[in-house]
Design a protein that fits this description.
CATH topology: Rossmann fold
CATH superfamily: P-loop containing nucleotide triphosphate hydrolases
Distance between the termini: 55 Å
Shape: globular
Strand content: 5-15%
Number of helices: 18
Helix content: 40-55%
Structural class: mainly alpha
Radius of gyration: 20 Å
Length: 405
């Protein structure tokens, strides 16, 4: 099999061509020496349909600028090469290694989910996928053919090429090849909904948000996890993605014994922060694809509905093991929050692990940079909009209202 650097070389080169799914797939086949896209086992036909819709969106509504075209091509080349390599590797796996009772963090975006995920990742009993492993899963950690330094260095270069390590991006969300990454990146090679956060492609987003696409994404994630734990270690998986609250049914279908914790925060702070992040991510590929004054109301309508549907699902499924975490409590006492969370799930939190968590907090720079400036009005919103859409959610869960200026 070709060396990693050769396989992913095209992800580090400028691209001025068009986005045509069959051509991109052929390029990936040449780079990897592989041609099996997964067949029925990995829902290949639906994957191809979503990839085609994404390519059409990139040529249309996404309004890519020149640099954005190269960045989008880089992302798709990584996705396609990794899909081929994952399909090839997974068929040879020993499938006796079950994934039991993973810890799964979710909740509103910008509600401390990344902060809490990083804290819990410092527990040596928890297994996480780094960003590099999520993007380039083969070979699995600890197996011959590449070491973690090679994989991590390669993917750090790819992240930089795609614009994710620029200071104005990492000030909003910390992207790093060696950092624990969330589940949407373990799902990415299914070509599903998560890609909609990076490009304005409405037709693709509608297709990728359908039930078949969601099921495909979770099946793909589970296969990725099976490959990544091929090093033989049987530690508990620690997962995280805000999108899990959109897809609760699919999450528990994939992981029936999941231990889920949901972060809550004042939507008056969450929505403008989320909009600011989306605008920054869109800007990596386009200067004009999204109107910020239209984005705010769209996010309010979308996420208020998501929260209402989540609470209805929880009421109908009292057997689901779910614990609520409040942002203000997490920030005030991170280790105490972790302790209460573990106790609720019947897990032990040793003194050594608490020391490791304290060391992590000392070194972690997440949220410690200069305060970012944005307001509800920047995205076409006012406080009355937040209260009308989210007031019932705030009262149901006892969410603390924060200063929203």
């Amino acid at each position: 099999m070709p060396m990693l650097g050769a396989v992913y070389a095209a992800a580090l080169k400028p691209y001025a061509g068009s986005f045509h799914a069959p051509e991109l797939m052929t390029q990936a086949e040449r780079a990897t020496g592989l041609s099996d896209w997964g067949g029925e086992r990995w829902a290949e036909q639906r994957f191809r349909a979503r990839l085609d819709a994404l390519c059409q969106g990139l040529e249309g509504e996404a309004r890519l600028h020149q640099t954005g075209r190269s960045r989008a091509h880089s992302r798709l080349h990584v996705l396609l090469c990794s899909r081929l390599r994952q399909v090839d590797h997974h068929r040879r796996l020993d499938h006796d290694a079950a994934i039991a009772a993973p810890l799964v963090g979710t909740g509103l975006p910008r509600a401390g989910t990344t902060f809490l995920h990083g804290l819990l990742a410092s527990d040596p009993d928890n297994r996480v996928a780094t960003a590099a492993q999520a993007a380039i899963p083969v070979p699995p950690p600890g197996q011959a053919g590449a070491n973690e330094a090679e994989r991590t260095g390669l993917y750090e270069s790819i992240l930089a090429f795609q614009g994710f390590t620029a200071p104005d991006v990492t000030a909003i969300h910390p992207y790093a090849a060696a950092a624990p990454e969330e589940c949407v990146f373990l799902q990415e090679a299914a070509c599903g909904m998560p890609l909609g956060a990076f490009y304005h492609a409405p037709a693709f987003a509608a297709l990728a948000g359908g039930p078949d696409a969601v099921a495909d994404s979770y099946a793909w994630q589970k296969g990725m996890m099976e490959s990544l734990q091929g090093d033989g270690a049987r530690r508990r998986w620690l997962l995280k993605a805000p999108s899990h609250i959109i897809q609760t049914e699919a999450l528990f279908a994939a992981f029936p014994d999941a231990l889920v914790f949901i972060n809550h925060r004042d939507p008056g702070k969450v929505i403008p922060s989320m909009a600011s992040l989306y605008m920054k991510l869109y800007s990596l590929a386009s200067d004009s694809s999204v109107d910020p004054l239209a984005l705010g109301p769209r996010l309010v309508a979308n996420w208020s509905g998501i929260l209402d549907r989540l609470d209805a699902w929880r009421e109908a499924h009292p057997e689901a093991r779910i614990v609520d975490v409040h942002y203000v409590d997490l920030i005030a006492d991170p280790i105490g929050t972790a302790r209460r969370l573990y106790e609720a799930f019947g897990l032990g939190l040793s003194a050594a692990t608490q020391s490791a968590m304290a060391a992590h907090l000392e070194a972690d720079r997440h949220g410690k940079g200069p305060a970012r400036r944005y307001a509800l009005a920047d995205f076409g919103l006012c406080e009355a909009d937040i209260e009308e859409a989210f007031g019932a959610y705030i009262e149901r869960h006892g969410v603390a209202r924060e200063a929203r200026a």
